[in-house]
Amino acid sequence: MTLRIGVIGTGAIGQEHIERLSHKLIGSKVVAVNDINEEGAKAAVARIGIDAKFYADAHELIKSPEVDAVVVTSWGPSHEEFVLAAIDAKKPVFCEKPLAVTAEGCKKIVDAELKHGKRLVQVGFMRPFDNTYRQLKTALDAGEVGQPLLLNCKHFNPEVGDSYTTPMAIVDTFIHELDVLRWLLDDDYVSARVIYPRKTSKASSHLDDPQIVILETAKGIVINTEIFVNCQYGYDI
């Protein structure tokens, strides 16, 4: 059986998913795409070499009887709307992070899925599946390095586009650390503080960069994370 997939959002990340679903995974076929940039979406489909129908309306794509499952890789603030629509259509949906840009939005999605009575939603957090992180998790669980007291982390990107704003450093970037550290430590957060150091000249007027996030967990572990999305030299985590 081939799973027919519709992809909402055909930017860089969306194209990676389309290519993977079309040429690397068995049993999946991208049959529909949607994006606010119709020309760009059609160009991506042509470049990847697939026959997928373009939908100007993402909701029509979700409701289409030709689509079995949905992948959401559009702009972060649109995720909540499309994931809820997929749940309403009773279709499995893979959503790139963030699931929603507010806690209330995430709760609304969880409640909708629970009401449906079946797990339909998966979020694109990949670090717990990475071999290196899994090795670290095994070592921590076995007590090989003793009890964690203090963690220092960083999440650096070479640069970001002009549409990237200050809150996105948390909901689009630091969200990976929020996910994986809770899993690694088998702990939860009880407090959070964000510090804004001197701003880099590489950041736009609507972005405070870098940022430092300090978390404290229920077990008393303190986590210090440096976020610098215009570091220039490369991707470094």
UniProtKB/TrEMBL annotation:
GO molecular function (one): nucleotide binding
Domain GFO/IDH/MocA-like oxidoreductase as annotated: residue spans: 133-236
Domain Gfo/Idh/MocA-like oxidoreductase N-terminal: 3-125
PANTHER family: INOSITOL 2-DEHYDROGENASE (PTHR43593:SF1), PTHR43593
Annotated protein name in UniProt: Myo-inositol 2-dehydrogenase/D-chiro-inositol 1-dehydrogenase
Organism annotation: Cricetibacter osteomyelitidis
